């Protein structure tokens, strides 16, 4: 097990348990935090949009073309934007910080 620090839209930080192999979107959703994830993790919407803390950004795999195309349709995109359904949690991401993007 590991953990992810999630900064919610109200600015509060929640630390949630994360299982290796789970998608970050699933971890956030299963913890009961406010993430829509309308497509269920297929990168077909941007309702799981998060900002990855710059300290952790370089530890992630590069975003796929499919993910980048979907982020082009999202609001408030920054250089730290990722779809949380496309980030698979592993031990190297233990302690990662993400911020939920505006809904």
In short:
The chain is of the alpha+beta class. It has helices at residues 24-30, 54-57, 65-71; strands at 2-7, 13-18, 49-52, 81-83, 96-100.
Q: Secondary-structure blueprint of this entry?
A:
Blueprint lengths: L1 E6 L5 E6 L5 H7 L18 E4 L1 H4 L7 H7 L9 E3 L12 E5 L3
Parallel strand pairs: 1-5
Antiparallel strand pairs: 1-2, 3-4, 3-5
Elements, N to C (H/E): EEHEHHEE
What is the gyration radius calculated from CA atoms?
12 Å
Percent of residues in helical segments?
A: 10-25%
- The oligomeric state of the chains shown is single chain
Q: Given the structure, what is the number of helices?
A: 3
Principal-axes shape call: globular
Structural summary, described in words:
17% of the residues lie in helices and 23% in strands. It is an alpha+beta fold and 103 residues long. The radius of gyration is 12 Å and the shape is globular.
List the keywords.
alpha+beta; five-stranded mixed sheet; 103 residues
């Amino acid at each position: 097990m590991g953990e992810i620090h999630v900064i919610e839209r109200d600015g509060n930080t929640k630390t949630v348990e994360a299982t290796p192999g789970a998608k970050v979107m699933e971890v956030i959703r299963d913890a009961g935090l406010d993430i829509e994830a309308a497509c269920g993790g297929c990168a077909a919407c941007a309702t799981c949009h998060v900002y990855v803390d710059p300290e952790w950004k370089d530890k992630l795999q590069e975003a796929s073309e499919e993910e980048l195309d979907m982020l082009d349709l999202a609001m408030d995109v920054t250089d730290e934007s990722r779809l949380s359904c496309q980030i698979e949690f592993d031990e190297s991401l233990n302690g990662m910080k993400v911020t939920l993007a505006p809904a």
